[in-house]
Specification:
Distance between the termini: 63 Å
Order of helices and strands: HHHH
Bound molecules: heme C
CATH topology of the largest domain: Flavocytochrome C3, Chain A, domain 2
CATH architecture of the largest domain: Orthogonal Bundle
Oligomer: single chain
Strand content: under 5%
Number of helices: 4
CATH class of the largest domain: Mainly Alpha
């Protein structure tokens, strides 16, 4: 039993050391365990009102404005007060696309489908936080561009 715990402890320590090396997965960073770490500054929500590019056609666009205190529950949907079909003239917000009116069988409903009611399930704000890990994602256009050049 004791040996098992020792192995477990060793595994945890090794993982901890690895995480510290890469400086991820721990908010403590390089601060030693007995010192209180200075918490990083809270990231700011980007509120530039400029629509961002989409990385692929099916990507839910990210939200280019603040959504603090925008209530979305059974009785109220603050997002739809600007983004619904009848509100866009007044708000000048882009209308939710037609997919938001489709049920799972592809029928078009008169109202936004319950599947697309909780907007924040798919649409997210962006902050100015530094990415914790790098990404190697490439846009399909970049890949296709490389291919055509080679031919
Ligand atoms: C007060 C009106 C208003 C409210 C409320 C609002 N929006 Fe917006 N939204 C806009 C406007 C206007 C734009 C166009 C860009 C801009 O001005 O920020 C926009 C842009 C967007 C976009 C980008 C669309 C694209 O094609 O890139 C998304 C996604 C979005 N809003 C989602 C939401 C969600 C989710 C909520 C609720 C949590 C919400 N919005 C609440 C007015 C609003
Ligand atoms: C299940 C995921 C999902 C939910 C929930 C959802 N959306 Fe979307 N939304 C998407 C996807 C995917 C797209 C891009 C492709 C498309 O139009 O279907 C999109 C596109 C949009 C666009 C851009 C439309 C355009 O024509 O440029 C707006 C604005 C938007 N959504 C707002 C909302 C709002 C407001 C809600 C809540 C009432 C909502 N969405 C709920 C997935 C979702």
């Amino acid at each position: 039993m004791k040996i098992r715990y020792a192995i477990l402890a060793l595994a945890v320590m090794t993982l901890g050391a690895q995480a510290a090396e890469r400086n991820i997965a721990t908010m403590r960073g390089k601060t030693p365990i007995e010192v209180t770490a200075n918490p990083p500054r809270m990231p700011q929500v980007q509120n530039l009102d400029v629509r961002r590019p989409r990385d692929y056609p099916m990507q839910p666009p990210t939200i280019p404005h603040k959504v603090d205190e925008y209530q979305v529950d059974l009785n109220t949907n603050k997002c739809l007060s600007c983004h619904s079909r009848r509100r866009v003239e007044e708000s000048q917000a882009p209308m939710v696309s037609v997919t938001h009116y489709m049920d799972r069988d592809g029928n078009f409903l008169a109202e936004v489908s319950p599947r697309r009611y909780f907007c924040n399930q798919c649409h997210v704000i962006q902050t100015n936080a530094r990415p914790m890990v790098e990404t190697t994602f490439e846009d399909i256009d970049a890949i296709l561009g490389r291919k055509t050049k080679r031919q």
